[in-house]
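Saturday, quiet lab. Running sequence design on the structure tokens for the scaffold JK sent over.
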């Protein structure tokens, strides 16, 4: 019975992240930054006295003095300068505008900002998650390893059949920042803008959070294996003292965004590798246990 209990929990931990997408609907909307500012109006105009020496045709001179508005004076003094450089200035402005409108020239921060806005506009998207455990990757030391080896085909089948649909875009994208990305680029493809990102690797312990971390901000991750342990209150599972790590690598996304800023197609994926050591279930040790699972989310059939 102890071996069976350990096997059940070890398998459950490997399957626990299958529920991560179900919490996507609980996301909080983007917090809107208040960028408006109240202008400060200085109703008292600043003036200055300007004197000018004028010489007439007969050689007589006269000093003319007047009080003028400083701002008007400044505008008058710079009119000629502005006129002389109008052509050059216009050319520079047009060039800058073209650069900003070309996604391939965007900075990483601009790409991330554009993607986040697209995610917010795509709340009606239908997403599908799939999981495939790689063959011969499920393992554990000792007798539990024998059980897992026998059960691997069944667990792989369960994972592959556990395709879940949910509304909206995966990940805690409200918190996504440029530093979460190894790379981030955008480019035009017909009438669409394509965004591609690769994320910085992430490792969580027993209390991982679905929308947290460099990967979690872009693609939902496991909500924590501690939650799985708490589903078996009748078992003595000493998970708090265990060495449990969940590694997320090769995380990337590629999406196709239409002219309205909505994601029409996309693929989000990563490789998740849970590793369990020093876990005791009913005094039976689970050691050197783990698996390699390919996780994927698609919208519109993927891209």
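Result came back. Writing it out in full:
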């Amino acid at each position: 019975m102890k071996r069976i209990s350990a096997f059940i929990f070890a398998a459950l931990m490997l399957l626990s992240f299958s529920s991560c997408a179900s919490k996507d609907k609980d996301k909080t909307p983007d917090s809107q930054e208040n960028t408006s500012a109240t202008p400060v109006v200085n109703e008292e105009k600043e003036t200055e006295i300007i004197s000018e020496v004028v010489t007439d045709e007969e050689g007589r001179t006269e000093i003319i003095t007047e009080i003028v508005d400083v701002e008007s004076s400044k505008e008058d003094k710079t009119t000629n300068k502005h006129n002389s450089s109008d052509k050059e200035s216009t050319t520079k402005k047009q060039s800058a505008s073209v650069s900003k409108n070309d996604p391939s020239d965007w900075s990483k921060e601009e790409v991330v900002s554009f993607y986040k806005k697209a995610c917010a506009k795509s709340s009606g998207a239908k997403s599908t998650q799939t999981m495939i455990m790689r063959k011969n990757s499920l393992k554990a030391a000792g007798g539990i390893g024998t059980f897992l080896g026998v059960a691997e085909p069944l667990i792989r089948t369960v994972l592959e059949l556990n395709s879940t649909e949910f509304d909206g875009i995966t990940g805690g994208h409200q918190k996504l920042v440029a530093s979460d990305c190894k790379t981030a680029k955008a480019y035009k493809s017909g009438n669409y803008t394509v965004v591609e990102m690769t994320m910085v690797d992430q490792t969580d312990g027993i209390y991982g959070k679905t929308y947290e971390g460099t990967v979690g901000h872009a693609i939902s991750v496991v909500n924590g294996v501690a939650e799985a342990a708490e589903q078996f209150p009748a078992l003595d599972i000493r998970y708090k003292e265990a060495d449990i790590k969940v590694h997320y690598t090769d995380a990337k996304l590629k999406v196709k965004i239409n002219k309205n800023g909505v994601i029409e197609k996309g693929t989000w994926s990563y490789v998740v590798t849970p590793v369990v050591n020093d876990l005791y279930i009913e005094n039976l040790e689970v050691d050197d246990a783990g698996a390699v699972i390919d996780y994927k989310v698609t919208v519109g059939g993927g891209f």
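Notes for JK: The chain is about 30% helix and 30% strand. The two ends are 46 Å apart (CA to CA). Ask whether to fix the surface positions before the next round.
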